[in-house]
Amino acid sequence: MQIAIDPAVESGPVQLPRPLGFGRVFTRRMFTRRYEAGRGWLDAAIGPYRPLSIDAAAQTLHYGQAIFEGTKAYPRPDGRLQLFRPDANAARFNQSARRLAMPEVDPADFVSAIETLVALEREWVPRSEGASLYIRPVMIATEATLEVRASREFLHYVILSPADPYFASGFQPVSVRVEGSHVRAAPGGTGAAKTLGNYAASLAASEAARAAGYQQVLWLDAAEHRFVEEAGAMNVAFVYGGEEIVTPALTGSILPGVTRDSVLRLAPDLGFRIREARLALDDVLRDIREGRITEAFCMGTAAVIAPIGRIGRNGEDTIVGRGEAGPVARRIYDTLVAIQYGQADDPYGWTRIVDTTAIAERSVA
Ligand code: COI
Fold first, then answer.
1. What CATH number is attached to the domain comprising 123?
2. Labelling 100: which of 9, 64, 145, 227 has CA 20 to 30 A away?
3. Are residues 162 and 13 in the same domain?
4. Residues pairing with 219 in the sheet
């Protein structure tokens, strides 16, 4: 893929605001590429970050044919930048695309768009503790039609946001509230795809949780309202006896998180057992009360690992462990973050150093 790079966009040193927050600051450039049925992907370009101009009838605005991803670029101790498993995001982007009747992208192009943009915007990678450059690839349906059918035109774009960790409190326990009526996703639905509607469908419950004094929603399955699925916009895990990490099995309505997958792969190397299972909420709450579950945590790209300190259901709270961040979550967090920031060896081959010298070869001016 050749990328046309607009040379007019300003480069050079950047003064980042403090605190950055999450997803509030955006860099000067963005990647765009459009798709036309019969012609494929066209016009890959990096130009100024700008408002999009799409038709008011664009299919995405009416029927929500749209997907996204989230990944990050990290500053290494040697000053270079690296990406973490962007190929996993490319694979999931295409899984989401298939579910939403959208065109797939060549995974190498998906990664090249990210890498070239990050290389151009390298001055925007924050160096403060826990901060990173959050990368948001998106695909939206742009054909102007009110017919309910798959669009024949699409826009794939990538924006970058220098960001603090998702929770301003850092590695502190979050509280979750069990959602008793709304569900996030149903069997056969779109829960395993990273599509906008899943997030829209979650908002009323998360606002209600917030109003009741909790930070996130703990989602149950749609069919029986019995089994734990996700926490907020993240996967969730419970630690039994300080040594076994149990996470809901991917039943089709749970997003297959890249962080979740990374935890499942590295935890055995740290001496923990792992298990994917259907987890009934009643059993989870009982096992917390009886001390068998010693910790719970959320897993996602934005927050990495967020310990859960308190679970509320029907106005009653269950405190996990002592309500504090536990040693297993801490160990997993420290290990994963050290790999992501290039502070530790990466025996898994997950990281990819951003080649800032090869921009010219990948691009046409
Ligand atoms: C993540 O954990 O990275 C997420 O998917 C949350 C994101 C939508 C902010």
1. 3.30.470.10
2. 227
3. yes
4. 230
